[in-house]
Amino acid sequence: MNHLGNPFIKLRALQVQDFDSVMRWNKDKAFCLANGWETGRSEDELYVWWINCVKRQSPDFLRMGIQYESRLIGYADLANINGISAELGIAIGESRLWGLGVGTETLKLLMNLGIEKFGTQVFEAETHEVNARSRKMLGNLGFTEISRIGNEEYMGKESQLIQYRYNRGNG
């Protein structure tokens, strides 16, 4: 897939042979805490999850791999795709890459994919109140806060969930 601002970041199909990357993410405690992964999951359990990610096909859900330089560093989702809107989500599996703009570039690519492949006009996202980097990223991309509904554990602590929306028609 083409790149936008950073030629080293691409979205691509997930592959079974990417499983070594998943095993590395599983050892990154910060990643596990931020993404609700149990720490110390068995290789067999992770492999079953990964095969499901690779093979899952649904008309309203798409999971792509985030490739940085030549390695898989995470995944990005378009969910609840319905012809006009979709939810965005990303998980960067290498916490040492957080805060370097990888997420922002990934979301730009994911939004372009949603527009080109599905005609998406409205993008929604959700993050935790305490996740300042994610909130800043969404703000920088033009998302606006629309609600504060629900709570969820993030980094081992309960946190308010914040919902965001970006409407292409308002840009």
Brief digest:
The protein has 171 residues and is α+β, with helices and mostly antiparallel strands.
Describe how the helices and strands are arranged:
Blueprint: E1 9-12, H1 19-26, H2 29-35, H3 43-55, E2 61-68, E3 71-79, E4 85-92, H4 102-118, E5 122-128, H5 132-140, E6 144-147, E7 151-154, E8 157-167
Parallel strand pairs: 4-5
Antiparallel strand pairs: 1-2, 2-3, 3-4, 5-8, 6-8, 7-8
Q: Tell me about the biggest sheet? A: 8 strands, mixed
Strand pairing plus helix content: what structural class? Answer: alpha+beta
The overall pLDDT average reads: 91
Question: What proportion of the residues form beta strands (DSSP E)?
Answer: 25-35%
Low-confidence runs: none
Termini Cα gap: 24 Å
* Tally of alpha and pi helices: 5
Q: What would you call the shape?
A: globular
Number of strands: 8
Write the H/E string, N to C.
Answer: EHHHEEEHEHEEE
Rg, Cα atoms, Å: 16 Å
* Residue share in helix: 25-40%
